[in-house]
Amino acid sequence: METVLLYQIKGTKTAVLLKPVLLKLGIRVRIVEPEQYLQSIGFLAGNKAFAESPEAYDGAGFDEPMMVMVGFSERKLDLFLTEMRRKKVPPIALKAIVTTQNQAWNSLQLYRELKEEHEKMKSYRK
Known about the structure:
This protein has helices at residues 13-25, 41-44, 74-86, 107-125, and strands at residues 3-7, 28-32, 66-70, 94-97.
């Protein structure tokens, strides 16, 4: 089943507009709290091959929202992103699909990687 891991989205306009899109498409949602940031992406995504980490993160949350998509076919991903645009959900700049490489990372590692990629893309546009 498709799942979306969401970070730093509670109480935002994005959350309000995104919820009906996820419900309509039957996509499961998991809100990731800052104390869970040291868990592997694979564990957070529900992959049984990844064990829960005993460590809890005690820092602040991210500066901006992040979305991680799990188990999407190409067709369902296109449908989801199209529906987000159609419903005018504010863009979430930091988004990823779980891969064999990034599922072993924790949320902090993935955030840093996505943030770096996003900054590079912004500089290329200038």
